[in-house]
């Protein structure tokens, strides 16, 4: 069976940088507390979900050597759409000038891998080239006076192009999951701001990431020691370290962006992947493990073989 390959990637961050010291200037917190408990030094704030998505998508299309009209499906992962109706992907498609369909996926911070797996399932079945975007502006639903959440989040977008190819399939295994009974630990009601029980989310996140990645690696017929690059959801360096230790994946084979971005929800995995790819940290044939978790609680993971 013919397969699919990831042929382009890109990311976008708003210009405005908010440092830990900027937050400590008005909140009862400190740069030291935030760095030690989360690994975050600063985050970018601003822009809209649409603007950031369009910028990241243009970069991914350029990298793939494609025009917007070559794209026949846009899948946008977001939990902060600019409007409730229509789906945010409609405006993104119009601004870019893509052909074919467009849809939104909301699986919170695990959403990008959900979107990637959904797009992959359609490649070769009527869709030839898909643009998969993760874009979120969590700053708009953050209570900037609540130190337990304000220090964690930032705004960004990341995007990839997936193409149907005649060659082997690059997506070797994946896992998607949700435990909707855990919704109460992390949520945002209409017109409100994010509520989170951090300790509970932390505990469940490590467990979910480890078990999801183990399933995905097993389905792909590989183990953690064969992973050349792990691209985890960028929420907290301690969550990443705890999960990696259990999976047997060293930190020097892990993409980290959170120190400069904070938790950017749907954007975090494609942004960290784009940075690592631009830095030449993946070569053709390498195994790349993507994983995420988020409100829901949702989780997701996928193993890709890099290169066409
Ligand atoms: N600055 C200083 N102190 C803070 C603080 C801040 N920004 N935020 C919380 N604290 C305080 C708490 O009030 C608490 O004080 P107390 O002991 O007097 O009650 C103390 O620090 C410890 O709080 P706790 O929540 O146990 O800290 P923690 O080590 O669990 O770290 C998080 C808090 C939020 C960083 C951590 O739980 C976390 O990252 N959870 C997962 C969050 C996440 O990933 N969310 C997104 C999912 S997609």
CATH hierarchy: architecture of the largest domain: 3-Layer(aba) Sandwich
| Proportion of beta-strand residues | 25-35%
From N to C, what is the helix and strand string?
EEHHEHEHEHEHEEEEHEHHHEE
| Main sheet: strand order | 1-7-6-4-5
The pLDDT mean sits at 97
Question: Can you tell me the residue ranges where pLDDT is under 50 for at least 5 consecutive residues?
Answer: none
Separate helix tally: 10
Biggest sheet architecture: 5 strands, mixed
CATH topology of the largest domain: Peroxisomal Thiolase, Chain A, domain 1
- CATH homologous superfamily title of the largest domain: Thiolase/Chalcone synthase
- Euclidean distance between termini CA atoms: 15 Å
Q: List the ions, cofactors and other small molecules found in this model.
A: coenzyme A
- The 3D shape can be described as globular
CATH class of the largest domain: Alpha Beta
Q: Cα-atom Rg, whole angstroms?
A: 18 Å
Helix content: 25-40%
The computed structural class is alpha/beta
Number of structural units classed as domains: 2
What's the number of extended β-strand segments?
13
């Amino acid at each position: 069976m013919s397969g699919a390959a990831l042929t382009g990637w890109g990311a976008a961050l708003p210009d405005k940088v908010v440092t830990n010291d900027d937050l400590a200037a008005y909140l009862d917190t400190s740069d030291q507390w935030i760095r030690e408990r989360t690994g975050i030094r600063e985050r970018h704030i601003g822009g809209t979900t649409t603007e950031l998505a369009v910028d990241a998508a243009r970069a991914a299309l350029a990298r793939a050597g494609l025009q917007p009209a070559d794209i026949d499906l846009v899948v946008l992962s977001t939990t902060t759409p600019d409007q409730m109706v229509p789906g945010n992907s409609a405006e993104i498609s119009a601004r870019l000038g893509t052909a074919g369909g467009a849809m939104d996926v909301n699986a919170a911070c695990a959403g990008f891998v959900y979107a990637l797996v959904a797009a992959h399932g359609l490649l070769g079945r009527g869709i030839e080239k898909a643009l998969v975007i993760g874009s979120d502006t969590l700053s708009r639903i953050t209570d900037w006076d609540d130190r337990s959440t304000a220090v964690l989040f930032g705004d960004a977008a990341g995007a990839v192009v997936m193409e149907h190819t005649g060659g082997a399939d690059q997506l070797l295994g994946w896992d998607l999951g949700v435990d909707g009974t855990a919704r109460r630990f992390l949520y945002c009601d209409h017109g409100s701001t994010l509520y989170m029980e951090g300790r509970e989310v932390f505990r469940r996140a490590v467990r979910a990431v480890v078990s999801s990645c183990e399933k995905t690696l097993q389905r792909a017929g590989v183990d953690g020691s064969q992973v050349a690059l792990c691209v985890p959801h960028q929420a907290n360096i301690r969550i990443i370290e705890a999960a990696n230790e259990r999976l047997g994946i060293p930190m020097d084979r892990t993409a980290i962006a959170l120190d400069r971005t904070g938790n950017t929800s749907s954007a975090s995995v494609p942004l960290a992947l784009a940075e690592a790819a631009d830095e030449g940290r993946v070569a053709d044939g390498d195994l790349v493990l993507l994983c995420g978790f988020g409100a829901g609680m949702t989780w997701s993971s996928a193993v890709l073989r890099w290169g066409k």
